[in-house]
User: Fold this.
Amino acid sequence: MKRRSGRAFSSKPIPDDMLNSILEAGRWAPSCMNAQSWNFIVLREPDILAKAHEALTIGNAFAKAAPVMIVVAARADSGCQSHRLPYFALDVGLAVENMLLQAVHLGLIGHPTAGWNEAQIKEIARIPKEYRILTVVFIGYEGDPNTLDDRSWKREKAPRRRKKLSEIVHWNGW
Assistant:
């Protein structure tokens, strides 16, 4: 319940041991038949981050303050092939959630995103063509929400909402 997708980032660097702890949490996520489909491309050098920021949609402009951008990529055929379902996507989701929870544990915030130019990020991060970017996660210390644009500030301050359990849980059948 403490985890949230914060938007107000401080540019304060994240120490290597904390970042490695977050990446280890992702590495130890469960995956279908232990396929471990995920790849984490960590961008934190200022010149590379500046180029990658150009690939973000306007809705993700808030993330430019974050000191770390983790591009999460996988091949669609890299997960287990049971029942012809896209388990690689579930595997990646589990790894990302582990990283987000570890970030919270360390006193940081993390925000997984959609809304970026995949081809542009793949070129900047030198990701092979057969891989897809499933999400881009921004990690950092919490910053001042007053530095956000109006749209992001409203989202940052909006109350968190979740559906009631009765809307999503079905006992012994739908």
Notes: The chain has one domain: 16-158. Residues 87-105 form the longest helix (19 residues).
